[in-house]
């Protein structure tokens, strides 16, 4: 599992500009549900942008259910009305860059549910992946290296083990911004003892998932998030 730091303001603004152009094209051509859009190459030429940028915009609109791509056939307007399409796209374009505190709060809320599901649904393969992430984090801490990425990879492995693709996708969406801002806001102490404590936290969460004990898993995750709770709620 890899993390890619992708949330840059300039990229977001560029992507939104292409999404707006696709919306305007759908309206101008009066496309109906299940009508086909031009190819990525044609749209890139029409909009004066790269095919990769068009592809990214289409993928985002697919994620929100506006478009549907069919292999070997092309990209089509989803089976929803034009008023709904315009409303959803307008909401997408209004989405601002989340402040770090709200990202952390969202992460806490998601993970307390995710770890309960993981404890109930995890497979043997999931346990292998979670343990591998735990070991990678521990190795970095013991050698005094920055282990922020390994920490988040551990939590993403738990999200995958939840068996809920929507929760997993939400974690993947918010994780890059958390990763890029984690050290900036100095949420957690970087001392050696803090790192060792977090290894112990990870191990206890992992053991609860192995034992398929959702209540204990939630309790251990909540303890693990002590510093995040203090950051979000000043308690």
Care to give the gist of this entry?
The chain has helices spanning 9-28, 40-47, 51-63, 82-94, 100-121, 124-142, 148-161, 165-181, 192-210, 214-224, 226-233, and strands at residues 67-70, 74-77.
**Gap between N and C termini:** 34 Å
Per DSSP, the total helix count is 11
Let me know the number of strands: 2
Strand content: under 5%
**Shape by Cα distribution:** elongated
Uncertain runs are: 1-9
Mean pLDDT: 86
Radius of gyration: 21 Å
Structural class: mainly alpha
* Element pattern in H and E: HHHEEHHHHHHHH
Strand arrangement, major sheet: 1-2
Summarize the main sheet: 2 strands, antiparallel
Helix content: 55-70%
Kindly describe this structure.
The chain is mainly alpha-helical and 235 residues long. The chain contains 11 helices and 2 strands; from the N terminus they run H-H-H-E-E-H-H-H-H-H-H-H-H. Strands 1-2 form a two-stranded antiparallel ribbon. Strand 1 and strand 2 form a beta hairpin. The longest helix has 22 residues. The radius of gyration is 21 Å and the shape is elongated. The relative contact order is 0.12.
What descriptive keywords fit this protein?
mainly alpha, two-stranded antiparallel ribbon, 70% helix
Sequence-ordered SSE layout with sheet pairings:
Elements: H1 9-28, H2 40-47, H3 51-63, E1 67-70, E2 74-77, H4 82-94, H5 100-121, H6 124-142, H7 148-161, H8 165-181, H9 192-210, H10 214-224, H11 226-233
Antiparallel strand pairs: 1-2
